[in-house]
Amino acid sequence: MSAARPTAAADDAPAEAVTAREGLASRLGSWLGAAFAVCFATGLLSHELQEPATWLPWGPSPSWGYRLTQGLHVASGTLAVPLLLAKLHVVFGQLFAWPPVRGLVHGLERLSVALLVASSLFLLTTGLMNAAQWYPWGFGFRAAHYAVAWVAIGSLALHVGVKLPVVRRALGTPVPADRRGFLVGVGASVAGAALLTVGQTVRPLAPLAVLAPRRPDTGPQGLPVNVTAVQAGVRDSAVDPTWRLTVAGPSGDVVLDRDDLLAMAQRTVDLPIACVEGWSAQGRWTGVPVHALAALAGAAADDDVRVVSLQRGTPYSVSVLPAEFLASDDTLLALHLGGADLDVDHGFPARVIAPDRPGVLQTKWVSRLEVVRRAQA
Amino acid sequence: MRRREGGSRPAAPAPALPPSTTRAQLVVRLVLAAAGVAALAVGARSAWLHLLDQWWPVLRWAAGGVLVHDLLLAPLALLLGVLVLRRVPPGWRDPLRGALLGLATAAVLVLPLLQSPARRWNTTILPTPGGVSVLVAVLVPLAGALIAVAVGRRRASRSR
């Protein structure tokens, strides 16, 4: 990157230079705006799906829906990095415009730009650090990322509203020939960032994913793990032979050990496990459909099931499987992965795997299923 | 006046400027402004509800990103522009500019991989050795620049 273009342009032809800068800024801004829109929409989706009672009509089909949206979330955020750096580079000179404020409206516009820059940098850096599970800050990531995302999208809308006439004019004017190389360089950086990261969810590109924090084929039984049994504090309780699954429902409690579960009708399905951090991987899971277990305790077709883990003390140690997911035969209490017993880091002795669900809601180390009437929930 | 790469800039046709405040455009701008203010309000409400006791670290990180960019990255880019890009042959400037952007992007992507402590307790995270990531982060943008220079020279020789 360099300031040579704007500076040189300012030397010889100010009016034309403004158009050239506007041309670059408008094009970069349009691409960045598209990336932010995708990132925001997919992030909002994941945030809502993790809420205990979401208003979103979200079901188990297609099984790859969450995988696709969250792959897009992290990919669009990653690709926004070179776009944001390039855009800030092109408009950096504007920071020193004089007078800094020409009136109330101009002052508000500059304030919205400051909010946009600060929130954009915040979202991209904390998002990348979260994907690498690096938390050197003193705030809750999810709450902060969510609130700042609204600030970013709001200030972006304001910025576009202010700049729309300029953007329209600039996009209707060809980029001068001697500035096209810069846009090609930006495009190459975007393509490079994509090629070296998206393999964390696009398996054929996994060998190239050297700048991504995950590979979809690395982990016990060939799948990554977000939280290990040691991290969750269940290393001993998960392999304790006295483990029992309790299914609680209207007709009373049913207690099953692992052999009881293995004696029930088993189902094998190929389902992805997908994380908001952008990685996903397909696994072959075998287990008992959760609706069959819930039926043992008297569940009705429109009941939900609360899933309780051996893990304690985190918001994700309990999840709720809505009736829409229970209706699917593919929503399993999985006992095997890839034909072998679940690895303890994958949730042994039993875990939930359901199509089209956030990874954090695929509860591991399950100890209890509770049938919940909708009115109760 | 400095000599520009590729000779004088082609005269851009005077753009037919659309009126900035046609009725439709005005409506779009007002809708965008209203949606923007509404989204800011949602963000502020969410911060009020969930981050009230954490506002200082959030503010520190939000402002910190701006300061790192404005006081470190942007001046560094300006300096490189002055010290390097003006001294290389014209055909190298755009490829090097692209390579610098690629290096900056790669640095942003690689830093969390190098600094995260997560691989100590989870062997499935950060599976690529840090040295490999750094090597690729440096070599790929530079290789891209060399390829672009070669392509540029080939095109120039063909057009002669």
Task: Tell me briefly what this model is.
Chain A is of the alpha+beta class and 377 residues long. Chain A has helices at residues 4-12, 14-49, 65-91, 104-131, 141-171, 180-195, 229-232, 258-263, 290-296, 323-326, and strands at residues 245-249, 252-256, 267-274, 280-289, 304-309, 318-321, 332-337, 340-341, 351-353, 366-372.
Description of the structure:
The complex is a heterodimer of chains A (377) and B (160). Chain A folds into 2 domains: 4-208, Fumarate Reductase Cytochrome B subunit (Up-down Bundle); 220-372, Oxidoreductase, molybdopterin-binding domain (Sulfite Oxidase, Chain A, domain 2), CATH 3.90.420. Chain A is 45% helix and 15% strand. Chain A is built from 10 helices and 10 strands. The relative contact order of chain A is 0.13. Mean pLDDT of chain A is 92; it is low at 1-18. The relative contact order of chain B is 0.07. Chain B folds into 2 domains: 29-83, no CATH class; 91-160, no CATH class. Chain B is an all-alpha fold and 160 residues long. Chains A and B meet through α1, α3, α4, α5 and α6 of A and α1, α2, α3 and α4 of B.
